[in-house]
Every structure is written in structure tokens, then in C-alpha cells.
Amino acid sequence: MSADVIALQVGGKRIERFLSYDIEADIYTAADAFSLDVARPEITITPGQRCELYVNGSLELTGIIDRCSRQYNKQGLSYRIEGRDLMGLLVDSYCEQFVTVENKKLSELAEMLLKTVPFINRKDIEYQENIVGKLKGKKRTVDEPSEGFMDTPQKISQIEPGMTVFEVLKNYAASRGLMFFAKPNGSFVFGRPKAKGEPLYNLTCMQSGSGNNILAGEEVHDISKRYSKVMVIGQQQGQDEFDEEAVNTSAQAVDADFPFYKPYVTQDNNDSQSPKLRARMIMEQQRHEGYQLVYTVQAHNQRGKIWQIDELCRVRDEVLGVDGVFLVYGRTFSRSRGAGTLTHLKLGQPGLVA
Questions:
Q1: 18 CB neighbour count, 10 Å cutoff
Q2: Distance between CA atoms of 66 and 44, rounded to whole angstroms?
Q3: End-to-end CA, the chain
Q4: pLDDT tens-digit readout, 20-70
Q5: Please, what is the Cα angle at 90 between 87 and 96, to 5 degrees?
Q6: With 80 as the cut, is the pLDDT of residue 96 above it?
Q7: Within a 10 A sphere around the Cβ of 39, how many other Cβ atoms?
Q8: DSSP letter, residue 307
Q9: Which of 69, 183, 235, 324 is the most buried (most CB within 10 A)?
Q10: How many alpha carbons fall within 13 Å on the CB side of residue 344?
Q11: Nearest to 130 by CA among 67, 218, 191, 208
């Protein structure tokens, strides 16, 4: 197996010789982080520069340099470079004034909020076609958020100072039962993770040892953040309706697999269709956090295909008794003097949004 090659590109110049590194990607994390240790950087790097990280020639992270530090010990002088992907800019960017946004569509809201954020190409925002696309004869329903709900103007009346750009856009997406996340090329996506299709990867740990590629594995069942019922209530202010049911809205989602009664209640005053969509999204988030698989493998690719998030993986693990198809929602590329080159994978049930 050929060695994996990591390259950091800043200002048109590249660094490829690293002592160690950690490069994270997680579809459920607001800003993916990286840290790189190099003995003698070929170029001068300054915090605030835009950068690109490549793995075996493939662009795997587009972001910003946050921090640079020099340190030394008995092994000599080293230089550490740390940063995050472009979503980190949205996490750090705060709204400065009250802005009325009632009846704005998601694309209009994103265009307005991202206007002053540097390094962001607003034309590259992806509104997944199966979410935003034309209806083709199908009726929009709360039970089918994929039928154009993101084209529906939202009822939130204003944005307030102190809210972050990421918070506003994530909350709007969540009110439609959707996610807001970044892709390796620096573009942003409003949509849902992959739930169907042919698995791109395979993880195997058989008792016979035949075809095994897993170095370590863990299965986690956790009910601490799960609930038997999620209830979302809201009041639709500014409605012309006098009907109490049109003003006071509520919806719930039930987890039939939860072992005892444990209700969760929250509010969503966005509009009348938001409570049911948010209730389902919260329940899916809780189910996602309640079951996870964690695996470690050698190298950063499988048969030449670099490990990617938002891809499906077939798992056959006789030690843990796992046999099925799961979503790769997180992965970390790492290299250290003691452990070598590894990929740490986080897998969960496909079809869930958090």
C-alpha cells in the first residue's frame, strides 16, 4: 500500500512534509478543525490566510489558518499550524443589527447574511434538488419536507444582534427538518445526509481473520440524550386568524424503542409547519446520538478511495455482532511518530438528521 500524502496549500505554495497531523471532518460538527506539525515550513504562514488541505491530491478541507506556534524540545524545533474549515467563519461571525427578514426565502436569507463574510462564494451554496426542486405534481406536506419546504418564506420577523450567522441559518434549516453543513471544497449545503445507495466502503472484522481491515472498534448505546417523546409548541404571532388552533401550534414525535416515559419539550415560533418538522428532526438527532460505531483503520483510503463523510459503509463485525450499512458521518486523519498513519471513523444509522 502506497503512503498517503498530505499537502497544505497557502497562497499558492505547498507544504508536504509533516511530523504529525490531525484533520477532522464531521457532518454534525459546526466547524471541522485541523492541526499540523512541521519541522521546517517551506513558507511563512500567517493566521487569517485561506488554505486548502489535500489528501493524495484530493481536496479534503478548505478553511482558514487560526493559529501558528513554534516550540522546541530535545527532538528540535517544530512549527504547529491550526485552523478550521470555512464554516468556522460563520460560527465566529455575529449579526450586528436588528434586521427584518419576515417572508424571506432561505436563499434570500443566506445571500444577505453571507454578504460580508470573507472567503465565501455565495454562488456555490447547494440547495439539494430533492429538497428545493419543483414539485412535479406532488403536494407539499409536513410529512414530506423534501417537497419544497425550503422554498417557503419563513415567518421569523427579525434577526437580532448577538446571533451568529451559523446559528440563524442552522435554525432555519432545522425548522424544515434539514441540515446546514460544509463540503471539502468550501461550499455549503442545505439538505440531508445520504440515506440510500451502494456502500462506497467496507469494514470487516471476522473471527477467521479473512479480509479484516479493522484495527479497533467500539459500539456505543447511550440513552442519556434520548427521550420517549419530543413535543414542539409554538405561537404564530401576527396571524390574521382568530382560530386558536391557527395561532397555537404543537406537534410531537414518539420514539417507540425508548425503554420508559421521558418527555422533551421545546418551542418553535417560526411558522405553523415548523413544529412537526423540528420535532422529527430533534427525535432523529437523539436517535443518532444514542447509537454510534467507532472504528480505526490504517491509511486514509480504501482501495484508492479516500475516506469521506456523508458516504455509506458496509460493516461486518463478528466481534461486536454488527452486520449492516451505516453512514460515515465523521472521520479524522491522523499521523504520529508512535501510531503511524491512521483514520478514525464514526458511523451511525443512515437517514437521520441532527
A1: 18
A2: 14
A3: 36
A4: 999 999 998 889 999 999 988 778 899 999 999 999 999 999 999 999 999
A5: 175
A6: yes
A7: 12
A8: -
A9: 183
A10: 14
A11: 191
Residue with cell 425508548: 258
- Side-chain half-sphere exposure of 124, counting CA atoms within 13 A: 12
Query: Looking at the chain, how many residues does it have?
Result: 354
Sequence-distant (6+) residues with CB within 8 A of 165 are 90, 93, 94, 95, 113, 114, 117
- Express each pLDDT in 309-324 by its tens digit: 999 999 999 999 999 9
Q: Write the DSSP string, 106-167.
A: HHHHHHHHTTTSTT--GGG-EE-HHHHS--TTPPPBTTBTTTTGGGSPP---EE-TT-BHHH
C-alpha cell at 185: 471544497
> What secondary structure does DSSP assign to 218-264, as a single string?
EEEE--TT--SEEEEEEE-TT-----HHHHEEEEEEE-TT-SS--EE
Interatomic CA distance for residues 139 and 55, integer angstroms? 44
Domains of the chain, CATH where assigned: 6-85 (2.30.300.10), 89-191 (3.55.50.10), 198-326+340-354 (3.30.1920.10)
Q: What type of residue is 155?
A: K
C-alpha cell at 110: 443566506
Three-class DSSP category at 178: coil
Report the distance separating Cα 275 and Cα 253, nearest Å: 10
Cα dihedral sign for 316, 319, 321, 322? Answer: negative
pLDDT tens-digit readout, 193-234: 898 999 999 999 999 999 999 999 999 999 999 999 999 987
Q: Does residue 335 sit in helix, strand or coil?
A: strand
- C-alpha cell at position 234: 409554538
Residue 159 CA to residue 172 CA, distance in Å, equals 12
Model confidence pLDDT, tens digit, residues 262-271: 999 988 766 5
Return the SS3 of 204: strand
